[in-house]
User: Which sequence fits this backbone?
């Protein structure tokens, strides 16, 4: 399963992770393995053995949790795993399918996670707001919550920018004031515009207008 060239490629994508702790197993193989392990009772031992040593162990852990069909059990595992999440890739791969059926129950956890001092817990919370609360569950409160996050952490602010770029695509009229009124820090503001301009979901007219709002 090991692919040394892929390991080197992964190491470049995740510069904060020790390269000697990346084995080089491709994501589809890990997902397939997760499906097999999910039904194995002995998998509970693996999930309880934290922190893991290798990147692929963390990925596998995230994929297994994401398959859990019981919300309460899934949340218990997420709460145990989030503080141990130590890179953006694993953070973003952690995406429990059951959450979309329990958005009302999920929201209090998101509010709590947003106040965490742990970079990837905050990033995960923003990702959940982006995934589940920009369509019919949207509220003007949610972009305000993301805008009010004050952090110098690159991986938090990149996710904030990603959130606002996606929000501009889905809730343009509600979110454009955050750009027009310069409510975001300089980095997040400009990165959100960049991502929006690169998006196929933003109209050409909107892209041209957003370019005029870039700050220096």
Assistant:
């Amino acid at each position: 399963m090991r692919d040394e060239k892929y390991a080197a490629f992964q190491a470049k994508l995740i510069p904060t992770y020790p390269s000697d702790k990346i084995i080089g197993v491709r994501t589809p193989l890990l997902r397939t393995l997760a499906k097999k392990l999910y039904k194995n009772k002995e998998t509970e031992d693996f999930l309880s053995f934290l922190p893991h040593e290798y990147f692929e162990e963390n990925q596998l852990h995230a994929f297994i949790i994401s398959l859990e069909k019981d919300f309460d059990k899934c949340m218990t595992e997420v709460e145990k795993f989030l503080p141990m999440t130590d890179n953006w890739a694993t953070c973003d791969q952690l995406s429990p399918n059951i959450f979309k059926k329990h958005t009302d129950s999920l929201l209090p956890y998101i509010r709590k996670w947003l106040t965490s001092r742990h970079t990837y817990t905050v990033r995960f919370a923003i990702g959940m707001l982006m995934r589940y609360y920009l369509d019919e569950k949207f509220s003007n409160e949610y972009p305000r919550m993301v805008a009010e996050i004050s952090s110098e952490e690159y991986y938090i602010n990149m996710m904030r920018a990603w959130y606002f770029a996606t929000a501009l695509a889905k809730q343009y009229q509600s979110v454009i004031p955050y750009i027009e009124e310069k409510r975001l820090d300089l980095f997040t503001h400009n990165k959100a515009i960049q991502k929006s301009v690169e998006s196929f979901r933003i109209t050409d007219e909107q892209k041209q207008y957003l370019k005029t709002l870039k700050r220096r």
